[in-house]
Design goal:
Order of helices and strands of chain B: EEEHEEHEHHHEHEHEEHH
Mean pLDDT of chain B: 92
CATH architecture of the largest domain in chain B: 3-Layer(aba) Sandwich
Number of helices of chain B: 9
Low-confidence stretches of chain B: none
Low-confidence stretches of chain A: none
Largest sheet of chain B: 6 strands, mixed
Order of helices and strands of chain A: HHHHHHHHH
Bound molecules: adenosine-5'-triphosphate, magnesium ion
Number of strands of chain B: 10
CATH superfamily of the largest domain in chain B: P-loop containing nucleotide triphosphate hydrolases
Number of domains of chain B: 2
Oligomer: heterodimer
Number of strands of chain A: 0
Radius of gyration of chain A: 21 Å
Distance between the termini of chain B: 46 Å
Mean pLDDT of chain A: 93
Chain lengths: 259, 251
């Protein structure tokens, strides 16, 4: 009994140190030659461009439903759907945009990265890289990390716009709010700080998605079953970390006056 | 020269290597024989630096692999080719790209690379399959592409993990000839792990037998043929009766 807890504790410390070294090596690897530009672009396309449809669809729907709920709540309290644009814009730009985009990307990209790297690990392809004089961090981790950290914030920004448009569609055609009111509600109160509040968050989420999925992939053990397990763990760990860090990043950003 | 000194390695309660001592001189072809699961692959992985010994040392050209920094380890690894038991081909790349992989990072011109790739594939009897994906190859073909990839950089040391397993008798002999050819023309030093006694006698200049985590016998092929060691005798005769204890049911 005691040894089991002991073992688990040691395994936990071990994974902490391993993930620390992975993060360190990946970040240093971004600045070390040779630069694998082709691989980075390839990953940017597969992570960023291919995620665009699903991210946009989600964002649009969320904007619509937010406007709907805000409008009905407004009618219930004030007999009139007031400030729908403001509510949509603030909740999307500061909170829902970054978090929901990160969630969608975790399911699409994080899982794929872990499954791919995990399969390479259990079929000894990562060992083969070493024996052919190639560093797997440089060749596999860095391009994926760079693609995450650049593409996810861009996806977040695009999603924000789509959500606000979704909100406008509902406000205009369902709640009968004149377009000019919706847009002035949206744009008059939103400051550049609010935008950065969400944008900075999305960088942190991107880093979490990248590091967790790469780490879980590299640490995969035990055949096809191991790949499945690693992929599930990767998604769950990423989602929990995103939601938990979201709170703390928000607190810190507000404290230093961003948003 | 490769010098393995008192190497130990275990996985949980499974003590696989329990003090392996072995020396491989330049130009030699050493074959390692031993039962399935006796730790031959684990030993090879120590020599290419994929595993580090828990106790003992592995030295390649005087460099202790367990102690050097990652960059220096990579420099040593560049001198070595390793044929994985299961091939370990990159399934996202074509066969030709797999063979070219190690060459790409040497800054060679493209024309030279494609010539070298064609040459290596010809060595293993697979000319013209450059554009085929590994997933579309048979098991034996995968193994041969993996072999082509491992020898493409003309490594000083070449480690073969069961190069002929899964190949028909004729192709097994082609691979044996290739190993001998590489040793003769390029003075390649080879370590071959195999269960194929015919190729043991054909390619080796030295044989070592691994049993219960230790090297229990080394010698030339002739010495092994005339051995009086009951363990070696049992293994070479392929008999289930003898001093080697197998955890199996008796009939
Ligand atoms: N990564 C690993 N994790 C845990 N145990 C391992 C690992 N690799 C090998 N082993 C164990 O080490 C022992 C030796 O394995 P190894 O692959 O070296 O055998 P082998 O001599 O190459 O056998 P074969 O001839 O069948 O290929 C086995 O009992 C195996 O279970
Ligand atoms: Mg083996």
């Amino acid at each position: 009994m005691l040894t089991r807890i002991e073992d688990q504790f040691i395994a936990f410390l071990d994974s902490l140190s391993k993930s620390y070294f992975l993060v360190q090596k990946t970040i240093l690897g971004c600045f070390a030659k040779p630069f694998e530009a082709k691989l980075v672009v390839y990953q940017m396309v597969s992570i960023g461009y291919r995620s665009l449809p699903v991210a946009m669809l989600t964002a649009f729907s969320v904007g619509m439903v937010l406007a709907l709920q805000a409008g009905y709540s407004g009618m219930y309290v004030f007999n009139e759907p007031l400030y729908v644009g403001t509510i949509v814009a603030f909740s999307i730009v500061k909170e829902l945009g970054p978090v929901l985009t990160a969630t969608v990307i975790t399911g699409r990209v994080g899982a794929a990265i872990t499954a791919e790297l995990g399969t390479m690990k259990v079929t000894e392809q990562i060992d083969a890289l070493y024996t052919l004089g190639t560093n797997p961090i440089k060749y596999l981790a860095v391009p994926r990390f760079l693609a995450c950290i650049t593409m996810i914030p861009i996806l977040t920004a695009i999603s924000n716009i789509l959500s606000i448009i979704g909100g406008w569609v509902v406000s205009r055609f369902k709640l009968d709010i004149p377009s000019t009111i919706y847009w002035s509600d949206t744009l008059d109160f939103l400051r550049i700080d609010d935008f950065f509040h969400g944008f900075i968050k999305s960088f942190f989420f991107a880093a979490i998605i990248g590091f967790v999925s790469i780490y879980k992939g590299f640490e995969t053990k035990g055949g096809a079953q191991g790949v499945g397990k690693a992929t599930t763990q990767s998604v769950v760990t990423t989602l929990v970390l995103i939601v938990v860090t979201d709170y703390f990043i928000s607190v810190v950003l507000v404290a230093i006056g961003i948003g | 020269m490769i010098r393995i000194n008192d190497v130990h390695k275990h996985f949980r309660e499974n003590y696989v290597l329990r003090g392996v001592n072995l020396e491989v001189n330049d130009g030699e072809t050493l074959t390692i024989i031993g039962g399935s699961g006796s730790g031959k692959t684990v030993l090879l992985r120590h020599i290419v630096g994929l595993f580090h010994p828990e106790r003992g040392t592995v030295e390649v050209d005087g460099v202790n692999l367990g102690e050097v920094a990652e960059e220096e380890l990579q420099e040593v690894q560049k001198k070595m080719g390793f044929l994985f038991q299961d091939g370990a081909l990159f399934d996202s790349l074509s066969s030709g790209e797999n063979v070219a992989f190690g060459l790409r990072h040497q800054g060679l011109p493209e024309s030279l690379i494609s010539r070298k790739v064609a040459e290596c594939l010809e060595h293993v009897g697979l000319s013209g399959i450059e554009n085929i994906r590994p997933s579309e190859l048979s098991g034996g073909m995968k193994k041969r592409v993996a072999l082509a990839r491992a020898i493409a950089r003309d490594p000083k040391y070449m480690l073969y993990d069961e190069p002929t397993t899964g190949l028909d008798p004729i192709f097994s002999d082609v691979i044996n000839d290739l190993i001998i050819h590489l040793q003769k023309t390029l003075k390649m030093t080879s370590i071959v792990v195999t269960h194929d006694l015919k190729s043991v006698y054909k390619v080796s200049t030295k044989i070592a037998m691994l049993l219960e985590g230790r090297i229990i016998a080394t010698g030339t092929p002739d010495e092994f043929k005339n051995t009086t060691d009951p363990y070696v005798q049992q293994f070479l005769n392929g008999s289930s009766k003898g001093p080697i204890k197998l955890k199996i049911k008796e009939y």
